[in-house]
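Supplementary Methods, section 5.1.

A reviewer requested that the exact input to the structure prediction be made available. We therefore reproduce it here, unchanged from the version used in the analyses.
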Amino acid sequence: MPDSLITKRALASSLKELMKTQPLTKISVGDICEKCGMNRKSFYYHFCDKYDLVNWIFDTEFSEIRNRPDHIANFEELCEYFYADREFYRNALRITGQNSFRDYFRMQIHPVLKELVGNLFDSEEDTEFLVTFLADGTVSALIRWLNSSDPEPPEEMARRVRRTMIAISQAIVTTYEEERKAGKE
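The structure derived from this sequence is encoded token-by-token as follows.
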């Protein structure tokens, strides 16, 4: 394993440990470095900020799942992955704004959703609206699920999201077809 990967993993492990007891907003780069015995220069050589590290953790740990063609199964694995490390992701998803994991994750699921629903409309604008709507809804549902004091099992959460997306998509197609027939488009 290359030294840079060892360093990144050590920093990631430190951040994950710290996030078990503190919100990300209260953790400094200095805290992360101190926890794993590295200096800030090493941190900034590899990452722009702590939010960049959070995104790297997700990318690294989820990269194998993301590249598989079965998006439905991938979503269930994503739920299992978030559930297994829910303290970390509960904390990571609380942050909003520039460089936040919430925005980064939304950006990561956007192309997958676009692939799934991209042919429902003739208009790119309508497609983009639907994809953004579904991405926002998915992120909100995951946040609510992870923040629950007794979250349902990941496979149940994945099933609920999948059924909801199918129902929304079917309703949209039906309405869209009816509007086209009536000449209201």
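Residues 90 and 146 are 6 Å apart (CA to CA). These observations are discussed further in the main text.
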